[in-house]
Design brief:
Number of helices: 9
Order of helices and strands: HHHEEEHHHEEEEHHH
Radius of gyration: 23 Å
Shape: globular
Helix content: 40-55%
Strand content: 15-25%
Number of domains: 2
Number of strands: 7
Largest sheet: 7 strands, antiparallel
Structural class: alpha+beta
């Protein structure tokens, strides 16, 4: 009898200690990152690095596909590709959210799907970042409200900047529903190619959709005027800076301050005035439809 209980205890302990699919994925990802770093340290050829990266990403994609299963959201493909773009810290696209991206084309709507567990691990790694500008809160609810989350999670070479938040109705069964209008940029100033971004948390799944705003977001004259005036002021300071033999630091700082203020004023203006524009109901409906479809309605 003692032998039987010993065996049962051993089996139970083994099951408890068995690595989960998420653990296996994280272990495989971290090993691949370490292997690529070692190759870089040994001055391996670019072709070798690229081939290793491609092979590792394919393996991770297969693991995520098994973990997440097929996507079942209207108008999106069932199979996705890995959201990570590189496993080398020196490359653009490194450190993005662990998950799969589902899209019919590069220009059209897309969804990035992950699990709550993977997202929480990713957020914890961001909360521990040495660079303060890259830190994110460990709470999913808090992180989804920040531009920096979307910049780091689903962007690669540009920053996401919010224009406004949509007041969408949380679909039945969803734990969290957040929708916003914004765009990707590498500079200050108006972003004319706006995106509707919707995040749904439902049970163990997190889905983040991005779709070109339809209809397109119009230019609003009062907001354009704010930016135009700020840009003109900044340009004058910039001319003073460039014309100075000693490169007048005060003029340089004043130019950047004018651009930053103009950018903030422009976005505040758009956030205030766009809801009164004739296109807004359609944009809100687009966001609500994405939220409903991702929640399974």
């Amino acid at each position: 009898m003692r032998l039987i209980w010993t065996l049962l205890f051993a089996l139970a302990s083994g099951a408890a200690l068995a690595a989960s699919p998420e653990d296996d994925y994280i272990a495989a990802r971290d090993k691949a990152i370490s292997d690529i770093a070692a190759l870089q340290s040994s001055n391996a050829q670019v072709e070798t690095l690229d081939a290793t990266n491609t092979k590792a990403l394919a393996d991770l994609e297969a693991r995520l596909s098994a973990l997440l299963g097929p996507l079942a959201v209207q108008d999106f493909p069932a199979a996705g590709t890995i959201n990570l773009q590189s496993l080398s810290p020196s490359d653009v696209g490194y450190g993005m959210l662990d998950g799969l991206r589902y899209a019919k084309s590069d220009e059209g709507p897309s969804i990035v799907a992950t699990t709550r567990g993977l997202a929480e691990r990713w957020l914890q790694s961001k909360a521990d970042e040495e660079d303060e500008s890259l830190r994110l809160p460990p709470s999913i609810d808090d992180a989804l409200k920040l531009d920096a989350f979307y910049t780091q999670a689903i962007g690669s070479d540009a920053a996401f900047v919010k224009t406004l938040d949509f007041s969408v109705k949380k679909p039945e069964g969803a734990d969290i529903a957040i929708a916003r209008l914004g765009g990707w940029t590498q500079d200050v100033g108006p972003i004319y190619d706006q995106q509707v971004v919707v995040a749904i948390v439902k049970g163990d799944r997190i889905l983040i959709a991005e779709a070109p705003a339809a209809p397109a977001v119009p230019k609003i004259a009062a907001c354009e005027a704010l930016w135009t005036a700020a840009d003109a002021t900044a340009q004058k300071f910039q001319e003073t800076y460039q014309g100075s033999d000693l490169k007048d630091q005060q003029a340089y700082d004043s130019a950047n301050a004018a651009w930053e203020k103009g950018d903030n004023d422009y976005r505040a203006c758009m956030g205030e005035r766009l809801p009164a524009d004739s296109v807004f109901p359609a944009l809100l409906a687009q966001a609500q439809t994405l939220a409903d479809h991702m929640a399974g309605k």
